[in-house]
């Protein structure tokens, strides 16, 4: 993994010198994720595959957007953002699962069954739980993150607001209004960019001039690029970045240069199959299978079987009942934001 250090601050409102993270020298071979991280990675991978199979079998309605290939991003960040405000996007199942480890609640939400996180009214894209909020509206999360982060700063809560976006979201004007305010007011906002090189079906090079790094630099905002998928090293690299955002109120943009193995939604992948197979060759799942052998394959099979059993149990539940705001699910009850 390589990390590009933050760009030096250029705005008068943020005069402090940048503190670039130390260059990360990887051991050979890279450290293996711990058991908990492995289970989280596999849970997200097989949950997303399960959704695609259920759609293909006619067991689910509507649509969904999977994060296949990008699972390591939220898994790496989850312990660093514990207790913070996290704003997700349309491709957010992995973000939710890495934080809450609640596949049954999420599937019940998507299926509209009892036990759903939001009584089945949010579905795949619009979920609220504790300090977590997802939305399918591109660019919406960043202005919200600035407002929430400003509240955290003024109350001295020590929390930050992290917003997950894709590279395609950088075509939205609200992104730049939010970055301007975050830099000007020194707001504790972490922008996590899952740059998978394609916006729905349009390659990034066909719809983005310049780079995200240069766009962050225009506002004097720190920028870090992560190009690997090894969870322990990513977490080590980003720990000081997150700490600066939290303690110094320095907004930062962290770009994960990653890849999307699945379709945009559930059957609309216009890429050449050879290109997708090339991406699979560098996937974290294939690497760990090769490196860890039988123990990893056994864990992989167990996680997949547990999720299949969970899906059958959730599918057999009665429909969720919306009881109105007066009787909200306790999981959504939080003094939010603070």
Automatic annotation (TrEMBL):
Q: Which InterPro entries match?
A: DH_E1, PDH_E1_Alpha_Subunit, THDP-binding
Q: Which Pfam families match?
A: E1_dh (PF00676)
The record's listing under SUPFAM superfamilies reads: Thiamin diphosphate-binding fold (THDP-binding) (SSF52518)
A single Gene Ontology biological process assigned to it is: pyruvate decarboxylation to acetyl-CoA
Query: What's in the keyword line of the UniProt record?
Result: Oxidoreductase, Thiamine pyrophosphate
List cofactor names only.
Answer: thiamine diphosphate
This protein's name: Putative dehydrogenase alpha-subunit
